[in-house]
Amino acid sequence: MILVTGASGYVGSAVLRRLSQEGHAVSGMVGNFRRAASVEDMGVPIRIANYDERASLERAFRGVERLVFVARDGNARAVMRQHANAIDAATTAGVGRIVFMSITDVEPSSAFYFTPVYRDAERRLLASGTKWTVLRCGLYADFILSHWIRPAIASGEMSLPLEDARVAPIAREDVADAFAMAAAADDCEGKTFELTGPAAHSFEEIADAAGRVFARPVRFAAIAPADYLERALDEMAEPWPHAFSSLCKSIAEGRYARVSGDFETLLRRPAARFEDFLRGAAAAM
């Protein structure tokens, strides 16, 4: 049986739905009954567990052959603790293999707020003795659309501390496809895959693509990191101002520019081009 955590979230629910439609024995894990209600329409068994309660995690993981561990977010200290609890509980419960969602930006030199969280989880996973597969995700195309393009469509300007930085965005739909494939496959044990889009784009190119797709003038303007942080502190609650600002620093250092062929290796097709992703999102709006 394959258990998918974060089953009420976008990626987790998409992975669960794909595996169920392919005929796999699956179950979804959520944190409470309210979240369970949001996945009942899939008709799959649901397990409820609290990431801060090891015993509840161990109960949820019993009898699981493969665990699709969709990473959490929030306060970094809390998330690091919860990831450790889940990996330890899965090991104790005898899970056959953990398929873990990580990020491409895991180098010790990275300033990104969440990098230590993922680096710690990967280290724990490799030391656990449990079989594993790690999928390191690049920057989500959906993140760029939600947080940077949509405000820019309204204002006409995408102002970020990124100058000539490039990113290779990948859509969450493609990430879900990759996780479903890795969970179902028998030849992914002990392997790390990097999931990126098929091309790296500058933010001027991203702004131009947004302008074409949404038929609105969108201009990219590079601003100082301090100015971006000041704006983020006005607009967001912690930890997000520092998470977003440190993400921009990582992007500016080229940590999200790498293009990997691992997605195509897994799926036997390329990931969606960024402008095609935008066109699909525009059609759905």
UniProtKB/TrEMBL annotation:
Principal EC category: oxidoreductase
Gene Ontology molecular-function annotations: NAD(P)H dehydrogenase (quinone) activity
Keyword annotations from UniProtKB, A to Z: Oxidoreductase
Residue ranges occupied by any NAD(P)-binding domain in the UniProt entry: 6-182
Domain of life: Bacteria
InterPro entries: NAD(P)-bd_dom, NAD(P)-bd_dom_sf, NmrA-type_oxidoreductase
EC number of this enzyme: 1.6.5.2
The protein's name in its UniProt record: NAD(P)H dehydrogenase (Quinone)
Organism: Sinorhizobium kostiense
